[in-house]
Amino acid sequence: MRRSLLCSTVLATVLPCCAAPALAQALPDWVTPDSAGRQVTLTLVAGPGAEPGTGTIAGHRAGDIELVVPQGWTVHWNWRNADSSQNHSLVVMAEREKLPAEGGQAAIDGALSRMVKAGLKPGQEDQATFVAEPGGWYWILCGVPGHALKGEWIGLRVDPGAGTVSLQFRN
Prior knowledge:
- It is a single chain.
- The chain is mostly beta strands.
- The protein contains 2 helices and 10 strands.
- Strands 1, 2, 3, 5 and 7 form a 5-stranded mixed β-sheet that branches.
- β2 and β3 form a beta hairpin.
- The chain is globular, with a radius of gyration of 17 Å.
């Protein structure tokens, strides 16, 4: 383990162009995988977007990232509404041809916050735990009417071939 860290450090110093892919693979603080336990903890914060009336999920929006979780892993999210002006919620919905106007039934059992359509008030928190089944493409989106259409969503792929959690930047 130390040897690979040393090699990565040397490569990053000597060949910075070659180290970029490895650095791009690093997970942000809000994603904590446990490969041995086949689970991942997400610390998701809903925040205000750059434009009035828009929001972000973990600082991202409009599908600019896709979280890849191995099929069968347990996902636990801790979620907080840090937007001082709007209610927000989270729900995992199946990716379709177009985003829904509001949240509905979660595509994966247990993958939703309380009060999906009304949203939680600023400062409120919630948790959810679910098993990433079945494999496929999903959205983690705000279920408050109009919020997903304004860009408050990120991608989720439940991948039967993935060995661990990863993030892919789509935009």
